[in-house]
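In line with agreed milestones, the collection of sequences with tokenised folds has grown. A representative record is reproduced below.
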Amino acid sequence: MASCSHCGTAIVADAAESSAEVPAGREAERLFVDLYYDFIRQSWDRAEHRPLKLGWSWPAFLFSFLWLGYRKMYQQAWCVMSIVLMLDAGFRIMLADDFRGMVLAQSGVRLFFAILLGALGMRLYQWHVKRRIADIQARYEPEQAWAELARQGSTNLWAVFGLLFFFFALSLHVIPLMLYPLSA
């Protein structure tokens, strides 16, 4: 259940009183985003006045695919994680004789994705929020839309642990390659 980040009041309970209307605009965004909405909204507003409409997100930069999972952007998180793992494996094969070059290439890829998500993270999240809100409004009756916005939005800390588990489980194919050289 969503609650106000400032006072702790349940938003869904207040929304139920005016459930004759479909939640829209910033009210729907606040309900969907939940935690840190005011900060995120300010970031979106600042980005609107920039040439490429990009901002900077330190959490997206520092935690990349984990941040995407935390914000319930699961497809994007899987995509970034899969690309990083495939490139790691590819660099290991291409640079089998150059351990230092392989580590440098892998670090470069991770830094590239960190910078990319730092710059695009909030914009990507804004698109995600707008798309999910429109989908919920189209699919549910007004009474149900309030509850669905709160349920499908907000954050998911368990997704971070799940993505970490899968990242380490899937990266196990890279570790043996690093310890044992490829034989011809």
User: Anything to note?
Assistant: The chain has one domain: 11-179. The first helix runs from residue 11 to 17. Residues 13-19 have pLDDT under 50 and may be disordered. The two ends are 58 Å apart (CA to CA).
